[in-house]
Amino acid sequence: MSIAAAKSLENPEETRRFPHGHVDLVTLGGTTAGRAEFEPGWRWSNDVAPIAGTKSCQAMHTGYVLSGRMHIRMDDGTEADVGPGDAMVVEPGHDAWTVGDESCVVLDFTGLENYAKQ
Prior knowledge:
The chain is mainly β. Helix content is 7%, strand content 45%.
């Protein structure tokens, strides 16, 4: 049996808020997808780590940057920047922060099931 599904992130099933941002979520066929907005001043280690209870983000992210810029630092010291139009994969074990004075908006298709979940 084939299944096709669509849900709008304009009407999310859930919104999780954290300092300097939020993520809007929908679940489709067992996959949680979301649009995250990371405002200027957002940093994972400051704003989400207290919720996650881990030293670094342990979620894998597969996403696409719609706007703004983000800097990512892996636990091993590897660093990268992502910006508008970039597709990205970020393995578990990282910190990240918004760069500049524009919110970074990212569509994420993995790693959001428990992200910033109280």
